[in-house]
Design goal:
Two copies of one chain form a homodimer.
Chain A: H1 12-27, H2 34-41, H3 47-52, H4 55-85, H5 92-107, H6 114-124, H7 131-154, H8 160-179, H9 183-188, H10 198-214
Helix pairs in contact in A: 1-2, 1-4, 1-6, 4-5, 4-7, 5-6, 5-10, 6-8, 8-10
The structure holds a DNA duplex (18 and 18 nucleotides).
DNA sequence: GTCTATAGACGGATAGAC
DNA sequence: GTCTATCCGTCTATAGAC
């Protein structure tokens, strides 16, 4: 509305995508109406249907726009690491960092909307069966395969099933961290430091996840009375 | 509908809550209409408004019904542990288990709908600011305080801020695991063993989380080329 | 306490002028 | 490519008979 006069009028598509990202994140897909969305974007009600065909197609476009480059970047990073390693298995933490860095970098990107998207993404992982979930799974599948292979090479003695669970846990920790970066202050009672310093967050997460991934099985079974 | 003749007619309230739990989990709050819900429950369209007042009030009732007992159980377990410890700090893993066990037990409870609820809960943690999030936060706050205190006593040398983040990560891993127990097979390509054995899951999670919580800072910085 | 009927608002999508 | 006007379905909530 206010932006109407400022932004070039031929970028309606982009403007819709940007606003959709934001509204989907704040209100969810169902709760975001086309009227709300087009009003916020300063475009006509009919514009979404003209440019994307339907609301569902818009949702898909929102994810594809960001996820494809993100996964490409992750895979490129993994390629680079493996090339440098000359056939040796990678350090587990290096693999973890290659995976999480792409997402975390976007947490700091408030300007281009990356931060918004990455929160939307974290949110969407926990959506039930729906078509959206299928789409996300499909977009992630090749990346997941490559990282799984890298982990298996790095940890040949960890039973596969255990590895799968731990990858699941790691993925979950990352997703939740992206989606609910605000819960920390619920726990802490106060805002922690510079709120979302991507670099610091990468350190914290990498430390936590690496320890979890490498945990010895059956260790620390401190269940019996601590006294 | 089919259940209509089977179940006693005076349990309309419960029947609505059960169905709401399920539909909210599968479709989300917005996407679940009262028509859908009342039809599935085999009750009249007006019944929800009669018994709960509004759709929003129903949502709140769904959470309160389960969350209050769950948190009470967690706190009771923590009390028991602390009583046994005679003033000594607890083992970190014992605290972790006290927290996660309540949720995980419900994963195995398919009959009474606990499994459904716990997935709904995991899903809801990543909902944005909304009133629901406020409700959940409020219901959790006292429990969170007690567990935070227990962790601080158990880990006096871990900087508070680091502890907060790690609690955040742990909470995230649990939430995601509850919400998306199916992603494992996306990673694994096949269903892992007896799908949701609560006991086995507790072992896996406790191991992973304990290692993460106790991780040494700055360790394993295997970022430089692994070669 | 349960039902039918309906009010009243809002949803996505499109036709057709410009 | 953009706009207005509108179709038509669904939504929550309620009024009032039983």
């Amino acid at each position: 509305m206010t932006l109407r006069a400022v932004r070039p009028p031929h970028e309606t598509r982009t403007r819709i995508l940007d606003v959709a990202e934001e509204l989907f994140m704040h209100h969810g897909f169902e709760a975001t109406s086309m009227r709300m969305l087009t009003a916020a974007a300063g475009v006509n009600l009919a514009a979404v249907n003209y440019h994307f065909g339907s609301k569902d197609a818009l949702v898909e476009a929102v994810f594809r726009r960001r996820l494809d480059p993100m996964n490409a970047e992750r895979l490129a990073e993994l390629d680079r690491l493996e090339a440098d390693a000359n056939g040796k298995p990678l350090a587990p933490q290096a693999i973890i960092r290659a995976f999480i860095r792409t997402s975390l970098k976007m947490v700091g990107d408030t300007r281009a909307g990356g931060r918004t998207f990455v929160r939307l993404l974290g949110r969407t992982y926990t959506e039930p069966a729906k078509p959206i979930r299928a789409l996300i799974g499909q977009l992630y599948a090749p990346t997941m395969e490559r990282f799984k292979a890298a982990f298996m090479r790095a940890l040949p003695h960890l039973p596969r099933e255990e590895l799968f669970w731990r990858m699941h846990f790691m993925f979950g920790t990352l997703s939740y961290t992206l989606a609910a970066t605000d819960t920390v202050q619920l726990i802490a009672g106060t805002k922690p430091e510079d709120r979302h310093d991507a670099r610091a967050l990468e350190e914290r997460l990498a430390t936590f996840l690496t320890a979890g991934l490498l945990a010895a099985r059956g260790e620390h079974t401190g269940v019996k009375k601590a006294a």
